[in-house]
Design a protein that fits this description.
Elements: E1 4-10, H1 14-30, E2 35-42, H2 48-56, E3 62-67, H3 73-83, E4 88-91, H4 103-110, E5 116-120, H5 128-146, E6 158-161, H6 162-165, H7 178-184, E7 189-193, H8 210-227, H9 231-259, H10 267-295
C-alpha cells in the first residue's frame, strides 16, 4: 500500500506528460516512501491519453484514470481522489510549473501535525497583468470572506491528510477553496514556499473569464464554512439587506409624493415592492433551510465534519 498518493489532472498536455513522468521517477528513486501517482486525463482531445498509457505501461506505481469528457479540474481531482490509497494526498498540476521535488517538504510539514499544507508560489513565473494581479486580488478577497488567510489559493500543489480531504464533496471549481473547506471542518492549515517554473510546453487553460465563476463559488463557500449549521443567519442577513433597500426606496417614494415629481410615481413603488418581495423570499428561504438542517438525519459515526478524532 502506498503511503503517498500524488494526483495530477491532465487536459491536452501531451507535450508535458513525458518530462512530468521523468521528474516523478527521479523523485521516487530518491524518496524512501511508497508513492503512487494517479494521472487523470480530463477528456483530452489530443494524444495525452495515448502518451500516458505508453509511458506508464512498465511503471507499476502509476495509474491512469480517463474521463469521457472534459469536466474541469475539480471533478478530475475528485476522480483521482476516489481511487487514492495513500494516507497523504498530494495534488499538483501537470503543466510542469509545479516541481515534484517540493513534495517531501510538504509531507514533512504534515507530519509536524498539520492537516493541510498549501504551496505558495512567492516567485511566480506568470504574466503580471493577466495572472499575477488578478490572483493577488482574488487571494485577498477569499481570505477576507472565508477568514482563512493563505497567500496563494490558486496554487494546485497542496498536501493533505487523506482523512480530511476524502470527506469533502468536490464540484465546480471548489479545488481553489480547499484550505477554507478543510479549515471549516477543523483542519490545521499552513503554507510553505514552493518552486514555480515558467510554462514552456503547451498552453494555459485558464483566462480572466474564470473570475466570475470563482466569485459565485465564493458565495457558496462562505455559506458552507460559516453558516452550514445555521443557514437562517446567512439568508437572514440577505433578507435584511433587501429590507433596507425597500425602506430607502419607500422613503424616496414618500418624498417624491410630497414634492410632486411625476417621474417616480410608478417606478419607485414598483422597485420598493420588488425589494420587499426579495426580503420575504430570503427570509422564508432561511427558515426552510434551518428546518432542513434541524430535521435531517445525522450519522452518529460521521464525526469528520465536526473536526473530532479519537486519541485514545
Amino acid at each position: 500500500m502506498p503511503e503517498i498518493s500524488i494526483i495530477i489532472p491532465l487536459f491536452n498536455e501531451e507535450l508535458c506528460v513525458a518530462p512530468l513522468i521523468q521528474a516523478l521517477d527521479e523523485l521516487m528513486e530518491s524518496y524512501e516512501r511508497e508513492v503512487e501517482v494517479i494521472l487523470v486525463d480530463d477528456g483530452s482531445t489530443d494524444q495525452t491519453r495515448g502518451v500516458a498509457q505508453d509511458l506508464i505501461r512498465e511503471r507499476p506505481a502509476y495509474r491512469l484514470v480517463v474521463l469521457r469528457a472534459n469536466r474541469g479540474q475539480t471533478p478530475a481531482m475528485a476522480a483521482g481522489l476516489n481511487l487514492a490509497r495513500g494516507r497523504f494526498i498530494v495534488f499538483m498540476d501537470g503543466d510542469l510549473q509545479n516541481d515534484p521535488r517540493d513534495i517531501p517538504m510538504l509531507i514533512e510539514k504534515l507530519e509536524e501535525g498539520y492537516d493541510l499544507v498549501s504551496g505558495w508560489r512567492r516567485d511566480r513565473k506568470d504574466r503580471t497583468v493577466t495572472r499575477k494581479i488578478p490572483s493577488r486580488v482574488a487571494n485577498w478577497i477569499i481570505g477576507r470572506v472565508t477568514g482563512v488567510r493563505v497567500h496563494d489559493y490558486g496554487c494546485s500543489l497542496k498536501a493533505y491528510r487523506a482523512a480530511i480531504v476524502k470527506d469533502l464533496n468536490l464540484y465546480s471549481d471548489m479545488h481553489r477553496f480547499l484550505p477554507a473547506l478543510c479549515w471549516g471542518s477543523g483542519a490545521r492549515v499552513t503554507e510553505v514556499v514552493v518552486r514555480h517554473h515558467p510554462r514552456t510546453l503547451g498552453s494555459s487553460k485558464y483566462g480572466l473569464n474564470r473570475i466570475f465563476k470563482v466569485m459565485f463559488d465564493l458565495i457558496v463557500i462562505k455559506l458552507i464554512v460559516s453558516f452550514s449549521d445555521r443557514p437562517a443567519h446567512y439568508f437572514g442577513l440577505l433578507s435584511l439587506f433587501f429590507l433596507g433597500l425597500a425602506c430607502v426606496t419607500a422613503a424616496l417614494w414618500g418624498y417624491n409624493l410630497v414634492e410632486g415629481w411625476a417621474e417616480g410615481a410608478i417606478i419607485l413603488p414598483a422597485v420598493a415592492v420588488l425589494f420587499f418581495c426579495s426580503f420575504l423570499y430570503f427570509l422564508f428561504m432561511g427558515l426552510l433551510a434551518d428546518m432542513i438542517v434541524r430535521v435531517a438525519p445525522r450519522d452518529p459515526s460521521d464525526v469528520a465534519s465536526l473536526g473530532a478524532m479519537e486519541i485514545r
